Amino acid sequence: MLVPDILPWPARPLDGRVVLITGGAQGIGRGIAQAVLGAGGRVAIGDLDATAGRACLAEWQRPDDALFRRLDATRERSVAAFVEAALARFGRIDGLVNNAGIADPHAPPLPALDWAAWNRRLSSLHGAFLCSKHALPALSRSEGGGAVVNIASTRAHQSEPHSEAYAAAKGGLVAFTHALALSAGPAVRVNCISPGWIATDAWRAPARRRRPRLSRSDHAQHPAGRVGTPQDIASLAVHLLAPALSGFVTGQEFVVDGGMTRKMQYA
Length: 267
Ligand SMILES: NC(=O)c1ccc[n+]([C@@H]2O[C@H](COP(=O)([O-])OP(=O)(O)OC[C@H]3O[C@@H](n4cnc5c(N)ncnc54)[C@H](O)[C@@H]3O)[C@@H](O)[C@H]2O)c1
Known about the structure:
- This protein is an alpha/beta fold.
- The protein has 9 helices and 7 strands.
- The protein has helices at about 25-40, 50-60, 75-90, 115-120, 125-140, 165-185, 215-220, 230-240, 245; strands at about 20, 40-45, 65-70, 95-100, 145-150, 190-195, 255.
- Strands 3-2-1-4-5-6-7 form a 7-stranded parallel β-sheet, sandwiched between helices.
- Strand 1, helix 1 (about 25-40) and strand 2 (about 40-45) form a beta-alpha-beta unit.
- The structure holds nicotinamide-adenine-dinucleotide.
- Nicotinamide-adenine-dinucleotide binds near residues 27, 47, 48, 100 and 101.
């Protein structure tokens, strides 16, 4: 008779896998990079901030498993060079995390917003397009299946005034995710995480690093009882990058916000 197995939970779900992480030198991206290393993977982090990138390599002391390249995810030549550098070093690409972006949603009121400022705030969407375009051929060859994880935001669904460009970028990333999942599958799965409030102060380059200054009410307004951390996003990213854990998951958006978008807002 056919008896379903009790399978061991993988201790190193990304063993031997290579993951590219844009904006990987600070904040949520650095949190994801460290979680990938902890899960047995190797990382290529690309970031505009070379000081922060070099600090990661110095602090991690994992020369065999980590590569940093200065990257502007909105420039195609820079993206192509980043992907080539990762392939030259590791010989394969199994995962891509499109995380780079301007984390500040606030902008001037729309009548005062110029074209360049609008475009700058759309950088996370532009970067996801360029990095996916250049990494897809290698991702498609990944044994077990490649995986893309896009970092959007709960601001794809909820807004404050004067955040149109950021909201459009993040809403665009959610839609880009399901569209690419259809084109790139079954060889490559594509999913998206929408973080809520994530405190990144402790994950900056050393000179700017500090403990988050958060009030009791900052924490208490979250149904989960606290503001989020980069590790909260990273643990789901590892899950979505690992074919053994999420091989049947694609085209989806996962909100990680301590329950904030499920809370009634009546005053
Ligand atoms: N922190 C939050 O509360 C929060 C919430 C929702 C979504 N997000 C999203 O998560 C992602 C990371 O945010 P964070 O808070 O960690 O930001 P952060 O500013 O702490 O880190 C972002 C990193 O990306 C790099 N970067 C920016 N533009 C880049 C580009 N064009 N090319 C390469 N690198 C670039 C920066 O140098 C920096 O190291 C962003 O896409 C942001 O919109 C953040």
